Structure formats: structure tokens, C-alpha cells
Amino acid sequence: GRVQSPLQHHTITIRHFPSYTQRSKKFTMADLSTQAPMGMKETEGIGLAQVTFRVRCEKIGHGESVFLSQADNTATGTRIPLFTTAKSYPWYTTRTPISLALPATKPPDAKTINRDVSYRYRYAIYRAGIFHRWEDSSDGGDIEELRHHSVADAACVHQVPMRLFRSGELYTVNDVLGVAVGPPDIDHIKVRQKFSSVGSLARKNSSNSAASLYGLNTSRPASSASMSETRGAKKKVGFAPRPGPSHYSDTPTSTKQAVHLTSSDGLIVVSAFLPVHVNRSNNGEWSADWDYEALLSMQTHLRVTRVGTVKWRGWHGNVGGGASSESGVPVDERHKVEAALRPFNCVPVWVPTSLFGEMYNGFCKGVLWPILHNVASVYSSPTGVNTGNPDAKKQVEPYDSEYAEYATDDIGQGLIHGDGGREGELWAAFTAVNRYFTDVIIQCFNEGDLIWIHGFHLMILPSFLTRRVPMAKIGIFFHTPFPSSEIFRTLWCREDLLRGILNADQVGFHLFEYARHFLTCCRRLLGLNYGMFPDPFGGHNLAIDTNGRHVSVTSIHAGVEPPVLHQVLSHHSTIERVESIRSQFHGKVIFAAIDRMESLKGIPLKLIALERFLQRCPEWAGKIVLVQVGISAFERGDDYTNTRNEVLSMVSNINSRWPKTVQFQECAESEMRLQQRMALLKAADVAMVTTIRDGLNLIPLEFTIAHLDALKERGGSGRKRGLCILSEFSSCTRVMRGALHVNPWKISEIATAFYQALTMSEDERMRRVSIASEFVTRVTTQRWALAVMLGLKGVQKNEDAGRYAGAGLGLGFRLLGMDSGFDSLDANSVARAYRNAKSRLILLDYGGTILANDNLDGLQRFQFVKQSRPPSVPNDRMISTLKELCSDSRNTVFVVSGKERHSLTKTLCHIPNLGLAAEHGMFVSWPTSKVGGKRRWETLVPNQDRSWRSIAITIMEVYTSRTHGSYIEETEMKVLWQYRDADPEFGYLQSRELEDHLSNVLRGFAVDILHGGVEEGGFVEVRPKGVNKGVVSMHIIKNLEKISDKGKLEFALVMGDDHCDEPMLSVMRQIGRRASEASFAKKDGQPLAPLPATIAQVDVSSCDDHISSHLQCFTSTVGKKPSAAANYVNDVEDVHELLESLVKVTTRESVHSGFYSVVDLKSMSSDITPSLSGLKPVLSMGELHGSLGGPLGGPIDHHSQARVSTNLNEFLGAIEQSDEEDEDIFF
After folding, report:
1. In the chain, N or C terminus with fewer CB closer than 10 Å?
2. Cβ neighbours around 695 below 10 Å, total
3. Contact present, 574 and 682 (Cβ < 8 Å)
4. 948-961 vs 984-1001: helix crossing angle, rounded to 10
């Protein structure tokens, strides 16, 4: 009576653990329902109800999943997995309804009916795919209203009366994990489908295997025999399909909805360090607490998982000895740290200490940090990787000098970084740490989660993530400045870093100034365009157009959390510390500054300005004090040492002249936490930030929060407090409009700011404090994060995974935005359609399709234009292939090129029956059997007035003279102004101006003015109106019957490689689409899916009379990139192989028998220029009998056979023959 479906795979996505595949057995309703209740037999008369089980799991842990099990058979019964998504969490649901066998109306062996039969079940908790425990009352959380019984069910067994169900109906049972008391919560959805009995459902399952693909699987591991069957199969990584809605609704959902963040949204926040403090007691116990001054420690209603390394007692990955804090968390105690972090939803990334030190101190701080802050000095002394020991002496080499920095740069030229050089070691550490983060993030990722990466330490992390989870929405936010392109281009790994960032869907900065620099780098270094692109919600977003995708760029400055700061300020220890500082400097105006001890913070400039101010205004001596706190920055190496020595010297000089004017104190970062910092800022009257280049700096914002009460006093205390002297190179300058902005490089401005702060009127001071308070009270950390997350969730990313494709190896990997179904061209399908067609058309581009492209290098392109370098020509192999294709009377082959007539004639005129189209179709030469002489050409459009050429050239010469790197390219029918070698920004501006200029002057001429951006080569072209490869392809089809007597077109193959070929690919794809629609209309089939929006719609109806309704059109671009073509091939070599396979089909059918031996086929494939005369057809069985005079009785003359192919597919490419054709040949 039980029905089983065959064993099959089932991919399960486990929360906080990677997807894994396990072999499982699928059961139908007989296994998933109760056993025959109360002695009821399993007969054909048993009714079935379809029941979906949902359970709310509030307290499920990391890596745990939920399974449903029959309570009466927990030992050997089937356990059914439940699934969740980002939208439905914390509800877990069975993927498909379970078929429950209902009690018969009157069992044949019973006199009465037991109406109290119940289905009893329990929920099991699995951890990492292994049974962990059964549910218990502690899983129910704080739900007390359901616990109305005095004693809870210890076994936590749920039960549903079967009398509540009806046969053929669909129900949903809603449970709460750990709560098994109270009446059941059942939703009666609708009549889904009726099965009158167990047998009918069994027949349904056996007759429709596709319907059981998403059936229910057991959680039992597969046997070793079953696992061995799939050991050689390639593992497929994916996500489980979303479960259907639990409550039926007839209301259609809108395709465009406002973006909202709900509690079911998942968010993975990734940073170099977790925003928590961990502490270890003397007995080895670990505890954790939030680092409230960290920007990412904010609390939110979202389901947030934080990923990062553990920062213990200030550890930054330095290598220490023994049990010192510099050696990181001991390996044998990591599980304790993980347990302490679990309540905070923090997942640590365990990276080897030395490796992290190389990455953090060596590459991030030693290489990236100066570049990101616009520092690229060739005179700086070499800085090695700091060991974390401030007393360690630097090892000086004998050749140490101002040029020693270059001695470490021994990276070889090539695509792979680091072949033994120091930079190679640091780069390897940087990429390795990013891979560690990738593995942990994948374990924590659920379908639909947002991934938010923070900091420049993880710049290439999006590249690794998009390779593993291409549909995830990934954002990266920089808290540092971003340098100009002239500084950033000094990095040897600049392209890899930019491509790593661009694999994210959103890039965020605190200021538009930094975003502008990033956009310029992408423009000048990668040749990408940016602008305002429309979003699906009716607005426009600033984005970069890269590989068919739009990467959103946002600039939103972060804020602070006033409630947290007010709580710190109201603490009694903070109040005591404020009073202590005020009493220590009683009667003085306190200027406070907190900076790291490095040159970028501008501490010496501040001290010089103070000295200048006291020299000019000696009356303020003894009335002011500068409290300068320096945070030790050992990771900065020599920069820290030099800055520290310089500051100590200047402080000593100032105090020797004006005693007690500067109070300098150096401390570790752990000694100046939020509480100590807020106490100093509260006690100070004026805060000073004179950094020469800085990213996010929250000290001015915290200072403003500390003095908000100054608005209420209005001079009551007599203190002139609440002002901030702020460098214009700090990010918060743009939002702190009430501060005194200074240029730190202009000492007189800082000295003047001292004087203004001391002598400012009360009204102006209160006005400035009020203006500064607007931002800090309005833009909090949570509002900043909400704005960024709404932008990330609203990124337009197609839910179809086929819309995106990966290309490139290693760090060159990039995510390409493709049309759905954009796959590699199937040579077998092309060959089958080619074989069966009577009228064929093959359109091929020239450069980049049948031979390597000449335009890859700017210098070579210029040499070709000036005719100082011979162009590339097709090789003998390609020429032979074209000759063979043209020799078939059913073929019409055209080479459609942008080159001039004489260039095509010189290289291809000796091929008989080959059609040529030059200059994008302006000139057409129809196929002819005559070779060697002059070809006859005709123009696509009338060519009468050519006076526009001299006008266009004159105007272009003006722009060439003022745009370095530009030049004019003239052909017979067109004129181009090339600026591919000019400065990208200036060249583009000049090209737009030239385009407008030409449009106005040539308005009365029948010409088209085309503008190609940098990615297309950077040109402005003037050509006769109505000429492109799309028009000439239609022209060829309309005249096909004049040059061929094979009837309407039945087969078309179109191949190109660049933007000039897109009109041809687009037109031919639309022609093929019209033929398919006509064929489907005759068969009353389902309508075809619409063409992608990227295809420019053209009226191709004029070709309808010249194409067959059975036309099979194949369009392909060379190279995997966004295109109007339906498919792609990888390179020119693939084009050669495809055309050669068509030649073999032609050669095979040219002989009367229509079939060749494997020996002959193999010899044909090994011969570059196959000859038809040397091939011997295999005799049919009748001919063989006739020649031998008997059944294989006579001697057979064996021809020489070099080697025999054991695989016919090697030659034919798996071309399938119909059964009828095979039988005709054989018999």
C-alpha cells in the first residue's frame, strides 16, 4: 500500500552553514501520514487531505534546521525538512503539502467510527544536518497566552484531530516551536486537487515524475553505494525554491513597490573587526559586550549577522610570544569565544595571526592607507611590516637610502602579482584573508540576505562572493577617503581593486568628493561610463555602467547615536571625570584634540598655529590650554616614530616659553574609549580637528552632542563653549556647517580660528552651535544605515540567475549582466539545422570574427590608419573553410566588414561565390564564380553629393589640433575622428562638442553622425544616411532569390564581435523571431517570451516574403559580453571550429551515398584542406553484395588507414541522424 518514488538529489540551504547535497528517499502520503489509524486498513477508499505545516521558530540557533516527524514512529519514521526564506522568517514551512490519509466513513471491520483519531507529530532540531534534539518548552519563548495548562506537555507532542480535515481540501497548520498545548491553528485554504484514494495519488506520482521534483525528502544520509553513483557528477550550488504562500489571496501583487525593510529581512554586516569587546577571566572564561563606539554596533529590528575577526585587547594581528594579547585568541579556546559571541549574532573569522598581520599592517596600512589618503611620496623611507613591538629596531640594509623603496619592488611584469617580491607577499596575504571572510559569509548566507561590507580591508571581497552567490545583493561602504585617479593609478594592483569593488551592487562613501574620485578612477583606468540611470521605482540613481550592469554609487555621511552618548554623559563616573578636568584647568579656556600619532592628523600644524597665535596675542598666554591626546599608532612604523618625536619637541618648546599651555598625553587606543573621550569633550570648551586628510571622524559630532545643553544656558555659566575648529579636509566638514572651517596647511587660518573662538559674540556662537546640532540630532547612525540599506535592497537585480554570468579567472572575474538564456552557441543545434535546410545564409564579420582583431592596441590602430603597418589577414585554414562553404550551392556566404573595398578585395577576392560588404554595408559585391579580376560593387544608398566630406574634415582638424592623442581616419565613404588615445575626460568633452558642431553644420546633408564612447573605441563618425550592417543584412535577404534558386531562406548564421555588428545581430534576431511566431501561430502554440529590452526594435516586415516559416536563425557574438545576439562563442578559434563543422556536413552530403566510414571522416578532420577526390564512399549493403557476388565472400581491397577514430562525435560534433535516414542507408 505504500508508494515510493525513486531516489534523487535534493539541495537544502541550511541557515549559517553552506549548502550541502544529500541523497534521500522520497515518500508519498502513505509514509508521511499516520499509519492506518486505530486499526484502519490502507485501502483504495481512504480519503486524502493536503496539509502544509508551518512553525514559528524564534530561538533557532546558527546552523540549525527544523524537521517534522511522526510522534508515534520517531525512531524509524520519515522526517520532513521545513524551509524558510528572508521574507518568511521566522516561519518555517514544508515545501509541498503532505497528504494525510483520513479515516474511512465506515471501516469494513468496525461497527462504529472513531471520530477522535488525531495526527500526532513532533519537531526535531538538526544542527549541520545531524539530529541534535527534540523541541521543548524553552523554544516557545515568551508566549504565555497558550500555556493555559498547569503542567506543560513534557514530550511536546502536537496533535491535530483528523475530523477537522476533508478529503481533497488544502489546509495549513500553524504551530509555535515548543508550544504543543491549546487548540490547533488551522487555515482552510481552498480546494487544490482531489484524489479519491491512495491508489489514485500513487498513479498520479508514477505518471508525472516532474511533479515530484520538489517533493519531501528524508534527512537520512545516503548509503555509500548511493553516494558512489554521483561521486563523479559536478556539484551544483543553488538555493531551494521558495515555498508557496500559506494563505491564499486573489489580490495580484504589484511589480513596482516601495522598498521597505522588515524584521524578516536578513542582513550580513562584514567588517575587519567585530563591533564587540571580548574579555578573558583569570579562570579562562570568556565574555563579550558591545563596542558602543563602533559604528556597526547599532541595534536594529533586522535579522543581522555580523562577521569579522575578534579584536582582543587591541590585537591587530601582530605576532606576539606566548600567551600575550598580540598572539590573538588561543586556538583551543576559540569555541568558548564563539559561544560568548553567539548571543550577539556575531560569527568570528579565524585567520592565522601572522597572515592577518601581513594583510592589516603590511598591505592595508603600509600600501593602501597612504594611497587612499592621497599620499604617494617617492622620497619617503621604506616602511616594513610592523611587528607590534614599539621598541623593536628596524633592520637597515647596507644600501638603505632614499631609493631603497624601489629595491623592494621586484614584481615581474605579468597578470599574476608577486613572483617573489615583497609586494607579492603582501598581496597574497590580502587575497588570502579575503578568501577566509568569503568562506564564513557563505556559511551564514540565506537566500535573499543583503551583504554589507565595510572598510578598505575587504576591497576584493565582492569578487569572491559574486562567484559563489551571484544573486546576492552586495554593498561595500568606505570609511576612508578615496584618492584621485592620478594617485590611485600608482598602485600596481589598481585594476584588480577596482574590479573587486565593481563586483558589488552598491558602493558607498561618506562624501560625494570621495565618490567623484572613485567614478573618475573607473572612467580613466577602466574606460567605464557613469551617469544617472533610471531605477524601477521611477527615480534615477548615480551608477557606473559595467558589463551590462549598473553599480550604484551613494554618498551618505554617517552620524552618531545621541541616546547612547547621553547615557554615557549622565553616568556618574563621566560627571566626576568632567569635574576633575575642569578643576585642573580652572579659569582657563580648554581646547581639546584627540588624534592618532601619524602625520596625516596634522598635530604639528596645530602646534605651530598655537605658537603663532600666542606670539601675535600674548595677552591670552596663561588663559588657554590645549589638551592634546595622542593615540599610539605603532602600525604606522616610522611615521609614528617621527610624528611622536616631532610633537614632543614642539610641546617642550611651547611650554618652555608659555608654561602649562599644552597638556600632551599619549595613550593606547584601549585607554581612550568612548567614556573617557566623552568626559574630555564635555569638559572642553572648543574641539580641534586639523587633519590634512581624513575619512570618517566622529569626534566633532560627539563634541556637539556633549554641548547641546549650551543652547539652553545662553551665557548663564559664562563659558564660551560648543565651538569646533574643523579642517576642511575632514569628511564631516560638509555636514558640520556651524564649525570654524580652516585649511590646516595655512597656519594663519588656524591661528585666526583660535582668536575667533575666544572673542566670538554670544549670538554668533549660539547660532553656530544650533546649526551644528541640526545634523547630529537628525542623522543618526540608524538613519544612515537605513538609507544605505534601502538603496541596496532597491538595487535592480533580476531574480533570474540566468540574467547574470561570470567571466574571467582569478581576480579578473566579473559579473556580466546578460539577457535571460544567453548561453554558449550549441554547435550541434547549428549543424542539425544546417543539414536540413535547403537555403542557407551565413553572415560573418571580418576583424574579430574570422581573424584576430587589429584594434586591440591604440598604437597599432594608429599605424594601420596611417598605413605604416600591414593589417592582419585570414590564415590559410580560414580561407580553405570559406571556400568549402561557398562551394555548396545551397549556401550564400557574406563577409560584412567595416573595412574599405580594396582591403577586402585584396584578401578575399580569390574565393569564388563569396559575397562581400564593405564599410558597414555601403558597398555590396554579390557572390560570383569569377575570381582574380575586378569585382563589381554596388552602393546600398545613392551616393551623389559628397561635399560634406571636406566640411567634416575641416571641422575635425580643428578639434584634432587642440586634443592631444586624437587623429582623423578617412575611408572611401566615411570620416572618423578618433580620440581613443586622448585623455578620456577631455576627449569625451571634445567629442560631444564636435558632435554638436557637426550636427549643426551638416544639417542639410544626408549623413548620419555616430558617437562611440571609450569602450567602443572613442570616435565620432560621419557616414551616408541609412548605412549600417542591419540594413545591408535585410538588403541581402530581399535579393537572395535573385542569386539563388533554392527558395525562401530556411537557415541563417550571423556572427560578429563588436558594437558595429550589433545592428546586424539585432535585425537578424528579429527576423528569426517573426518566423518563429508565424510557425507557432500555425500550431496554436503558446506565445513566445518577449525579446530582451536591449534589442533595438526595427521594422523587418519587408523580409517576410523572403523567409520560410521554418527559418532557424542563429546569432552569436564573439566573446562573453552583453549583446543583442542570442548566444556567444568564446573566441575566434571557436568560430573556426564551428565553420569547419559545417564544412564537414557539406562534404559528407556531397557524395551520392551520403555516408562515409569512420576512417574517412577521421582523415577529413585531420586534413587542414580536405580534398573531395581523395575520399572513398562506403558502399551500401546492396552494392556490397553486388560487387562481391556473394555475402561478403570475396577479398576486399583495404585502403591505407592511418588510425581509426573510436568516437564519431569527434568528427561530427554529435550530429544526430534520424532513425529513418539510418535505416534507409543501412538497408
Report:
1. C
2. 21
3. yes
4. 150
Rounded CA separation 132/314 (Å): 37
pLDDT in tens, 372-398: 988 876 544 444 444 444 444 333 333
Q: Is 544 exposed, middle or buried (0-12, 13-18, 19+ CB in 10 A)?
A: buried
Coil, helix or strand at residue 98: strand
Q: What is the CB neighbour count within 10 angstroms for residue 75?
A: 5
Per the rule left: phi > 0, alpha: psi between -120 and 50, beta: everything else, 188 is beta
C-alpha cell at 378: 617617492
Please, is 640 exposed, middle or buried when counting C-beta atoms within 10 Å of its C-beta (0-12, 13-18, 19+)?
buried
DSSP 297: G
> How far is the CA of 786 from the CAs of 306, 478, 791, in angstroms?
16, 16, 9
Report the pLDDT averaged over residues 333-339: 90
Q: Which three cell numbers stand for residue 512?
A: 560625494
Q: Single out the residue of 925, 873, 18 nearest to residue 442, CA to CA.
A: 18
Q: Please say if the pLDDT value at position 340 is more than 60.
A: yes
- Per-residue pLDDT of 759-783, as tens digits, reads 998 888 888 988 888 888 888 888 8
| Main-chain dihedrals φ then ψ at residue 809, nearest 5 degrees | -115, 155
874 Cα distance to chain centroid:
38
List the one residue out of 499, 449, 453, 497 whose CA is nearest residue 469.
449
Please state whether beta strands 506-509 and 529-534 pair in parallel, antiparallel, or not at all (unpaired): unpaired
What is the per-residue DSSP string for 222-273?
A: PPHHHHHHTTTSPP----PPPPPPSS---SPPPSS------TT-EEEEEEEE
Of the candidates 1068, 1075, 1073, 1065, the residue with the CA atom closest to the CA atom of residue 1129: 1065
d(CA 477, CA 696): 11
- 94-127 tens-digit pLDDT: 988 888 888 765 554 544 445 568 888 888 888 7
Question: What is d(CA 121, CA 156) in angstroms, rounded to the nearest whole number?
Answer: 9
Reported in sequence order, the residue ranges of 820-950 that DSSP labels E, i.e. its strands, are 823-824, 840-845, 891-896, 914-918, 923-925, 938-939
User: How many CA atoms within 13 Å lie on the side-chain side of 672?
Assistant: 18
Using H for helix, E for strand and C for coil, what is the string for 1034-1082? HHHHHCHHHHCCCCCEEEEEEEECCHHHHHHHHHHHHHHHHHHHHHHHH
Q: Which secondary-structure segment (H or E) carries 531? A: strand 529-534
Residue 1172: name the closest of 1147, 1203, 1154, 1204 by CA.
1147
Nearest one of 540, 538, 539, 520 to 530, comparing CA atoms: 520
Q: Around 115, how many Cα atoms within 13 Å sit in the side-chain half-sphere?
A: 5
Cα 472 from Cα 266, distance rounded (Å):
11
